[in-house]
C-alpha cells in the first residue's frame, strides 16, 4: 500500500519512457492532480449495476482510497489521462473484480456525477499487465447547451492492478469520429506499470 508521497514518486517520467511528457492538470497549477480521487457510490449510476463502470471513468471506485494522483501523459503523439490510486489490498482486488462483473451486463447508463449519458459499453479484453487488468470502451453522449443532439465521444479505458495500486488510463480523441475508438498508448501503459511492478524507476 503506497501512501501519498510514495505514490507521487511512482509516476513515470523520462527515465522510464524517453520522450514522454507528464503533467499535472491545468497550466500553472503545480501539484493539482494529487489526492483528487474520491469514492463514487454505485447508486450514482442508473442502473446501479453500471456503478463500477461509471466510477472507473473518474479513476475511482466505491472504495475509499489511501492516496491518488491524476496526470496527463503524451508520447509519440499519443495523449492519455491516467490515475494511480492506492487502496487497502483487499479493496484493490475488489475494484477489478467488481468492474469485470459489471462489464458483463452493463451496456448503457446515465450518472448523477455527469451531465452526459453513456452507451455502447463493451469489454475489450484483459490486457497482460500488472497482477490483473481489464479494458473497455464506450461512447459518451455530450450534451451541448441549447443543442438538439448529443455529440458522441468514443472513449477507451484500461484498468490495471499492481499490488494494492490501481492504474486507470483513459484515451479520448480530440476530434472524435463516430464509431472510431481511440487506443490507449501501449508505451505509456507499459512504462507506468513497470514502475509500479518494480516499486521504483529505472536507472538512466
Strand composition percent: 25-35%
Q: Strand order across the biggest sheet?
A: 1-3-4-9-8-7-6-5-2
Sheet of most strands: 9 strands, antiparallel
What structural category characterises the helix and strand content?
alpha+beta
The percent range for helix content is 10-25%
* Gyration radius, rounded: 16 Å
**What's the pLDDT, averaged over the residues?**
90
Q: What ranges have pLDDT less than 50 throughout 5 or more consecutive residues? A: none
Query: What is the succession of H and E elements?
Result: HEEHEEHEEEEEH
Distance between the termini: 26 Å
Description:
The protein is of the alpha+beta class. 19% of the residues lie in helices and 31% in strands. The protein is built from four helices and nine strands, in the order αββαββαβββββα. It has helices spanning 4-9, 51-56, 89-102, 186-198, and strands spanning 21-23, 45-46, 67-75, 78-86, 109-111, 117-123, 132-142, 151-162, 165-172. Strands 1-3-4-9-8-7-6-5-2 form a nine-stranded antiparallel sheet, with helices on both faces. The protein is globular. The model has no long low-confidence stretch (mean pLDDT 90).
In a nutshell, what does this entry contain?
The chain is of the alpha+beta class. 19% of the residues lie in helices and 31% in strands.
